[in-house]
Every structure is written in structure tokens, then in C-alpha cells.
Amino acid sequence: MLLNLNIIDLAVVKTLDLDLEKGMSVLTGETGAGKSILLTALGLALGDRADSGYVRPNCKRAEINLEFDLADAPQAQQWLKDNELDAEQQCLIRRIVNQDGRSKAYINNRPVTLQALQELSEKLVEIHGQHAHLTLLNADEQRRLLDSFAKTQPLLDHVNACYREWQQTSKELANLIKAGVDQTEREELLRYQLEELQQLDLSNFSYAELSEEHSKLANLGEILSSGQAQVDLLYESDQQSVNQMLNHCLAELNHLAQFAPELNEICTMLSEAQIQVEEASLQLRRFLESQEADPQRLETLENQIGIIQSLSRKHHVTPDELPELVGKFESELDSLTHSSERIEALTASAEQLLAQYRQLAAELTKQRILSGKKLQQQISAMIKELGMPQGEFLVDISALDSATPKLNGKDKIEFLVSANPGLPAKPLAKVASGGELSRISLAIQVTTSSDKTTPTMIFDEVDSGIGGGIAEIVGQKLRSLSHNRQVMCVTHLPQVAAQAHHHLYVEKNNRSDITSSNVRLLETEERVEEIARMLGGVNITANTLAHAKEMLFQSNSGL
Length: 559
Fold this sequence. Notes:
By secondary structure, the chain is an alpha/beta fold.
């Protein structure tokens, strides 16, 4: 459960450190006092989208810290363990929103993504907003509520996984069948292109080597004439070769070395150079002697390079990419050649997946029908308690018109209501008034939440449009939910506030230039005064105070 809420510089809250207890807690206060900002803070800490407008004026950032006791949250404990974020029995959540709107999130002092924060939050807190009765009119929300009550999520996941696999298989099958119309023409083109490319002997293909050999043969005359000139210059010239000059230089330096021994090292280096020049000359001569003009080979290379360049331009690839192109064409041709086999295999797979989907969807329908009967009985009984004595709530489950598989099963789920006897049940949007819709919504939220494992539940003015004795029943229902979990409720109704175990009062402070709000836990006498204010408005009489005391006494809230 939530142990502590700490807020710093968020909107109208400068600083707040609030300890929370088990059971049912209510938040009350004048309109505009700042009750909504507490829920905003909780939403931000639990992963809602951040905005720079949340930062208090003249402050650099807003910060929200939550501390949870995980003794009653085994799913959250397991999630933290799986994500290596566990820290014994407690969990600390921290969210920081900067002036530029960017935010950071931390779990147990370790940075996490917003998605990770949202995943954990679902296992810790469930928030029911004041506009829940409006979303109740949405068909997807009605299906979600029924599936949540029926605990069909694992089966629903199987149904949807099977649907997506069937959809992908069917799409591939349709594409193959469509491609089969032009298959013959495409096969002929691919075969022609492959024959054209395979004349290049691509198994031993290297465009770089071909280009190098062609360049050498094309310039062989220059290589031979210039190469022989270098042999003469290095070694074989009768006039003056490098070798002769080195001989002369060595003779002179060897003579001088008799008088200057330090010249011996230089003589050694020149002697080695003479040996290297001789060896280079011999190798160059052997290379030139091995070269032979081959006009026929040169012509062959020129033709082959011309074909390569032509095919490269034709297929819009570089010469080195031609082998890869052949592999691509061969793969496509093989696919087309065996497309009939592939079509047959995909057809069988699609039929098998369709049969599996229908079986799973039928089981899902069965569970929904069984749970739908229980849900409509419980909600019908509750809306009678909530001031609709003749009201009947129905969960209508019918098959979708389409035989094609659909996401979330093959059921059309619709919530119907009959507010008066003798009248047929009709969809909520066509029957229920605003007040009736609020009651039905509250009945659904309480009913579908009664067996959930979420340790903390928050209700934000879900009792709007309700008053009198019905409001007291609403308070009792919310209090009953708190027997095995923590319940927090923002309310304007004294009947609901009187049912709480703990009463938090939100008040506005206008004593400085910037308005701020504060929250404090009310003691017994302060609770009486706050409930009297909620009952009587501006002028609080002795009778009003007596009525408030009586309400608290009857609710067994501690007096």
C-alpha cells in the first residue's frame, strides 16, 4: 500500500509530506483548494505524461516521491525482482519534471524508462477518474471491464496471438496467389537474366583482378621498353650505371678508410646497397623476360569487361555486386518455381490457425457468458441499492456479423439497462440519464474491483450526481472495498466522508504572492466541523454539528 506521498514545487503545492494509512481515506476541501493536484501528482509519479506547466512558478523543477509497502503486492514484488529493481519489502518511486517539460523517473533510486514505471504502477495503484461514466459508453471499455471481471486475460492473449499469426499467414498467402497471375512471365524474364549473367563465370568472378590484368596487357609495350631502360640504368649500361658508380664510390671510400676507420660503416652500407641493386636488376630482368604479348587474351578481356559494365548499367549495380544479384534472382526464381508448394503449405497453416482461433474464441465466449451473468446480477443488485429500485442491468453478448477472425474474439459485448419495469433494456447511452449513468458506473467500478489484487485504489469524485441516502450507501460500498486494501476517495459528499477511517483536508493558502495548498489529517473534532461544513455550507448551526457527529458515530469511524 502507499505509505507516503511527498511533493515539492508542483503547481500550487510548495511542499507536502503526507503519511497514509490502511483502510479508507477521504480528501475533502473547498472547490479549487487543490484536491485535484494531489491526484495529478500521483498520476505523474505513476507514469502520466509530464508538462512544464506542472512546475511551480519561479522554481526549476517539480518532484514527487512515493513510498510503498509491498507486503500486500506480490505481483509488484515479482516484477521488481524480474527487472532487478527489488529492495526488500519497500518500493520508492520518484519522478522529476523540469522547467523545459522533460522528466526523469526512478524506482528504488535507479533510473527507469516511463514504460517500466507504468508497468509497475499497474500492479500498485488503480485510479478511477471522475469521468469514468463517460468512458463506460465506449464498446471497448465495456469489453475490457467484462474481461477484467471474468479474468480472461490469459485466454484473450492466446486468442489475439492466434489472430495475428493467422492474419500474417493469410496476408502472405494472398500475396502469393496474386503474384501467381504474372508468374510465368516473371519466370521467363528471370531465367533470361540469369543466363545472361552466368556467362561471366561468376563463381570465379573478380572485377578488380580482370581490370588489373587488362591494364597490364594493354600497357605491356610501355612496361617492356621502360623496364629494360631501368635494367640498363641500374646494372647493364656500358656508359654509367648505378652499379658502376657504387663500385667507384666504394673503391675511393675503402682507400680513405685506411686513414679514417669510422668510414668503414658507410662502406658496409654502400656494399649492401650494391648487392640490393644487383638483385633488383636481376629480378626486373627476369620479370621482363617472362612477359609476352597476347593480343587474343587482351581482346577477350576487353569483351568481358565490356559485358560486365553493360550488365552493371542495365541492373543499376556496381560490377562487384553482380554475384549478389545472381543470388537474389536465383532465390526469387526458386520461390516462384515452388510457389505452388508454398501456397499449399500456407493454405494448410491458415486453416489450422483458423480452427485454433475458433476453438479459443469459443472458449472465450463461454467464459464471458458465464461471467456476464454473474456481473449483471451483482450490478443489478447494486444499482437497486443506489436508488434505481426497478433497474435491471444486462450484459448482452452476441456473435459478430463477420465470419472473419477479429482481434479480442468474435463477440459483440454491450451493456444494457432498463430503468423501469416493462420497458426493454437498451444501450446505456440511450437510456441512462447523467445521474443514473454515474450510479451504474460506480456500481460497475465497485463490483469489478471487489476481487482485484491491486493494493491501493483511488476514486476521484466518482460519486458526482448522487446525494441523500444513496450517497451514504456509496460511502458504505467504498468502505467495504477497504477491508483488504487501501482506498482513497476525493469527494464533496458528507455521507461518503463520514464513512472513512481517515479524513484528509485540503486547504488553500493565499497569504503570499503565490497561492499554495496544504493537506492535513483531521482529528475527531475537526472532522465533525468539516462534515458540518459539507452539510451546511457557510452558516454552521448547532443542529448541523449534531448531525455531523451522528453521521460519524453511525459510520463507526472511530467515535
